[in-house]
Amino acid sequence: MIRFQGDAGPIPLPAPETYTRDLNEVMQTIATVGLWAGTIALLIYAARIGRQERSPLPVFIVLAVAAGSIFEPIYDITYHLHWLGADPEGNGPQWTLFTSFGLPQPVWVMPAYVVVFALPAVLLYRTFAGGVTLKKIYQYAALTAFTTALFETIAVNSGLYTYYGEAPMRFLNYPLFIAFMECAQITGFAVLCAVIKLRATKWQHNLIVFLVFPANFAFECLGAGFPTLVAMNAPNPSTAVMWAMAPVSIGLAAAGLYWTSQALFAVQRLAELEGRAPSLSPTSRIEQIAAPVV
Q: Nearest Cα to 122, choosing from 176, 182, 205, 52?
């Protein structure tokens, strides 16, 4: 593994042989066309919801996630993800959108963000704003953990990108603990979009979603993930330490989702008092109040 010597010490980077791995150019075409088509379709659907609700929020959700996709190189360098088909200068068959940290990003990284992160938020935020229990939020999180793992396992094993270096809980070349980090991030973003829906009184207030998406991404993936990420990026990573830290990171991600959900419940109660949201059923209210602290 080659290492970049910075002021803070060595940073693990892809080994030379990683750059020589072949990109599946057929899958690149399929991913590019399919994900951009999905993004356009979701944007049209979001615009329709926006007209119905007389709010720009659903459209802003899609645009905020698209803009927030420039966060990806930060994720890549910490979680050791390398997009195949380009060297650090961007040379190769990869269709490159931009490069940062010496990691060229493919043109389909932006629509991939929209489909994986914005789609669940657009589908869920109104349901969450209307009233939801902590149990249901965690059920949605479990579902997104499965869909994220499925999406990434297919992408990794079809020659689009790879996770290099050391990482715990690998299954079919995909570090499974990442799915739990991502599910908390995806579901937490939908929860926060519901908070915005309940509190925004002017259309300009919805612009906060452009900050909320990258902030929540960093909160769950980097904030909760820091014990495992520190272990993975040590000069000589210890397999035992990485495996020990992975459950800690997963627990922190679950705790982060819990407290994000508590913010929604507090805003829901405030909206009920102000007469801007229907009251939850007594059973749902008890489930919110009695939910155990993570």
A: 52
